[in-house]
């Protein structure tokens, strides 16, 4: 017991010291110019990119999840692609000016950012969050996932060394080396932490939201993919299998269930088999259900990011190395239906829809089960159908004719490269955006007066309609009194003006 207590105390002390150093470093960083900031960010991005392969291997070895070659790609997106997307943004001083409205916008950082990192994408998320924090003159303190402490810290050390070498103050990048939930929660509520970037399990995200601090959290995916009757089936299925196999399904935007129009169902089955899918029979499906969800409503963590061969072993199913993923036909949706859950592994549910209306209803039920606000994928040659789904579905990203996993994070689409995907109010998040540098800035606005306004004095009132009518009559009398000669009887005009004043004072 004493060892555990001592460890928790050490973790809390480490956290407090990291915050102290980060706060001091961030105060110095405030004086840096845009040019200095950009030099530091570039140095960090280059160093991270150069270590993408080595850190990918380290992440797989430590967590047992995913594919090193795929994690390398994620590291490259989290470093180089993120850098390319933010390098030209102004984040220091005056960043925009509207001369017509006479408004000036000034960038101000939040301060110290607490970043929670998941076990599924540990090194790429560390790169990404560090880059967007440094670009916006924030300090960052990272809490790694307990199962990915070593690789996450190694990624942060790469960033820190590059940043300091480029002139950043020491302490700007910090981390918690002890796997302590208490230290992580204390970090999120520390008075000198100003923003939380929470990517991880639902419990941590809820803790971030209840911390009393501004927080960007993300919800679960459970992404449906709809193969509409006009889809190029061969191309669509190839993409879907590639996407689901990517890093063994660890990206939250990965497709979880296929909904296919019945008119192309047989063609879809043929293409799934041709692309390495293993179609489970009824007995194998029952075995796999127990492996996916031993406790109703909860996914077995032992299958997350694991290979089909490893999962087959857990289910007592014999397969060869050519199998890339499992597929089982399903008709039900619910917490008690394992194949309908977000599995984060190479396992698919396959639903058949009579038409787009039924497909839309199935997609909605799957999203309601645990993916509202996240993403939906559709393969179709009918753009009107894609737009209909975009309008009607409660998601923040609609991926059309592409790999959902890679497309949602900006790899194959024009979306902002990001490892933190907001789910909007659909999923209980503050934003539906792909989180990037601009989300880590306060924008101050200086506005010049461009409109004149008359403020009435206390007690003053406008004339009544009757008084206004009488005033109009008096004015006409004044004009008539001028006569054809244009000369004015001064005494008469004075009397008439006094009558006007009396009307206003009534």
From TrEMBL:
Q: Which SUPFAM superfamilies match?
A: ALDH-like
Checking InterPro entries in the record gives: Ald_DH/histidinol_DH (IPR016161), Ald_DH_C (IPR016163), Ald_DH_N (IPR016162), Aldehyde_DH_dom (IPR015590)
Q: Organism, per UniProt? A: Bacillus badius
> What keywords are annotated for this sequence in UniProt?
Oxidoreductase
* The protein, known as: Alcohol dehydrogenase
Q: Which Gene3D superfamilies match?
A: Aldehyde Dehydrogenase, Chain A, domain 1, Aldehyde Dehydrogenase, Chain A, domain 2
Q: Which residues form the Aldehyde dehydrogenase domain?
A: 14-275
Q: Can you tell which superkingdom this protein's organism belongs to?
A: Bacteria
- Record's Pfam families? Aldedh
